[in-house]
Task: structure prediction
Amino acid sequence: MAPIMLCSVVALAIIGERFWVLKQDKVLPSNLVAQVWQMHKQNELDAEKVKVLRDSSPLGRILAAGLLNMHHEREVMKEAIEETGRQVVLELERFLNTLGTIASITPLLGLLGTVIGMIKVFTAITAHGVGNPTILAGGISEALITTAAGLSVAIPSLMFYRYFRGKVDTLVLKMEEESLKMVEVIHGEREAA
Result:
């Protein structure tokens, strides 16, 4: 039970942290590309504003990488955005593998508890015979409780793992769209929205 309880605490901490970090407003501030375009149009994009943009959000970090290369060709700018984007995606996926691992191992830990409980039942039968149902009930109860505990941790962990995976995929897609808009606007291939 101790490993299952530890897994439940870790899973709960990861779920809370991911809900906090993956808020859409924190990752993709609205109208950020339009603000960058306005600053670019008014020649206000200096190193200090790009630094503030980079520190503001994951999308800001990606856009700042592109802005640092805006005087180069379109392909160089896109390459810088993609490189930074890969790093940002890793940060957005942080702890998700751990959550997925917890979802995978807790049923196995529950099964291990079941096996240990059944071993105790058979040991009790060997030592005392089948005449005392109290001894048998204790081992069977332990077996069932650990299985239930393992599944109780695994099911929500798997649900949140899938939820956060989908959320990260959606956020990454939207960041790609926004950064491509900025590249096209900066290089004059699209009108500012």
The chain has a mean pLDDT of 88. Residues 2-94+166-186 form one domain. DSSP finds eight helices and no strands in the chain.
